[in-house]
Amino acid sequence: MGELASVYILDVPYHADKPYTYYIPPDMADHCVPGCLVEVPFGKGNRRMTAVVTDLPEGQAKPTYKPLLTAGTEPLLSTEMLALCRFMKEYTLCTFGEAVHAVVPGAALTRITEYYIALPGTVPAELHKRAGMIHTLLAERKKMTRQQIQSE
After folding, report:
1. Are 116 and 145 contacting, i.e. CB atoms less than 8 angstroms apart?
2. Measured CA distances, 7 to 58, 76, 79, 95, 131 (Å)
3. DSSP state, 67?
4. Cα 81 from Cα 124, distance rounded (Å)
5. What is the pTM of this model?
6. Beta-strand pair 37-42/47-55
7. If you average pLDDT over residues 111-128, what whole number do you get?
8. What DSSP state is assigned to residue 41?
9. Which residue from 3, 38, 42, 89 lies 20 to 30 Å from 24 (Cα-Cα)?
């Protein structure tokens, strides 16, 4: 079915700090490497959370695995930094997310930006009027963030 990613969610309480397995969609397989930041649906409400890929385990994806939502284009943490975060988690009894926040400058974690682009082609007729307007705007501007779209 596809590749798997083992991730640690950055901002969870200590009792929920453990590796979680997610399915990597085929279009993200090239970007998803250990150390990169991803966004995942977490919990029963599928709340969008930021996580760090720590491993790419072998195996087949089960139907219960949720897919990654977005993946960074390059790793934020090197292999050594991941090992340091694991050590800090074990030695100081902090969460993996707290260890990541300690080794990565805060500004690096705030640079995560999701862009929207229009796929080439005509606007499908069955789109809602507002969705068609957004598609046209994206086609003109090439790429935009959610905040830019909402301000238009």
Report:
1. yes
2. 14, 14, 14, 13, 33
3. B
4. 46
5. 0.74
6. antiparallel
7. 69
8. E
9. 89
